[in-house]
Amino acid sequence: MYSKKLFLFDFDGVIVDGMNEYWHSALLACQKYLGSPEIIIENNHFKQVSNTFIEMRPWVKYGWEMLIIVHEIIKRENSLNNKNKINFQKKYHQNCKEILLKNSWSSEHLQTCLDKSRKYQIDKDFDSWVNLHKPFYEVIDFIERIKKDKIKSGIITTKGKIFAEKILSKLNIFPELIFGYESGTKVEIASELSNEYEILGFIEDRKKTLVDIKENNCTMDIPCYLADWGYLKKTDRNNLPYEIKLLKLKDLEQLVAI
Ligand SMILES: [Mg+2]
Question: What's the gap between Cα 228 and its chain centre?
Fold first, then answer.
């Protein structure tokens, strides 16, 4: 038997609600680093998160995709809005690819712009940047609670590790393990970890990621929980396959209460 026990957590939408930060950082990245002739950014844009952006967020896997969404929303012509968003969502990945191609962008370049935007804000006013994130305190309490049972916490995020670390330390959470997009896919990371730890659960708000975990031979035994409080598509809660369970914030404690 394994002697080391581990709980895995996604970060965005599971530990923090970063909606304000995503909008703000992606907008600033477009303004300062993207140099697109199709957009003009006004101060008003920064005042409130676009509803279309909020509606698009469940489709996002990697941070750089948020620059594409923001760019399309604030474009002067044929902008993405609440009327045409369904069409965009239907072919989400294809649309992202086409927009990259049309503008001669690469995903790596967009990710660099987003990371630079975050770095800029951190250097300028760290507290203001951190305060754009709203923690889910129930999850933070849960991480504290399992620590008492000698269960370690691992955070797997598609953010850069350094940014997740800064937010977590400000929230006074110090998980034993943190992995960012630099460490590979979530399945790869979970697979590596399963050689060393008994993984008691993985809490994530992206259904496809949990399906990928369940469809991989090395990780299929990990109990998977879809975070009901995260960025879910309307249909995500229906017909969850492979015994993936829908988890509500109030039921977190039950995961370790025996
Ligand atoms: Mg997430």
Answer: 14
**Are 159 and 181 in contact, with CB atoms under 8 Å apart?**
yes
Give the DSSP letter of residue 201: E
Structure tokens at 244: 């993936």
Whether 256 contacts 146, CB under 8 Å: yes
36 CA to middle of ligand 1, Å?
A: 28
Interatomic CA distance for residues 246 and 79, integer angstroms: 35
Distance (angstroms) between ligand 1 centre and the Cα of 177 equals 17
Distance 231 CA to ligand 1 centre (A): 7
Question: Dihedral, CA atoms, 65, 184, 119, 79, nearest 10 degrees?
Answer: 0
Q: List, in order of start, the domains of the chain with CATH numbers.
A: 5-17+134-255 (3.40.50.1000), 19-130 (no CATH)
The DSSP symbol for 215 reads T
pTM of this prediction exceeds 0.85: yes
**pLDDT tens string 20-48:** 999 999 999 999 999 898 998 988 999 99
Cross-strand bridge partners of residue 181: none
Q: How many angstroms does the Cα of residue 12 sit away from the middle of ligand 1?
A: 4
For 201, other C-beta atoms within 10 Å of its C-beta total 19
From CA 52, how far away is CA 73, in angstroms rounded? 8
Q: Which amino acid is at 156?
A: I
The helix or strand, by DSSP H or E, that contains position 209, with its residue range, turns out to be helix 207-214
- The whole-angstrom separation of Cα 72 and Cα 70 is 5
| Contact status, residue 7 vs residue 146, Cβ threshold 8 Å | yes
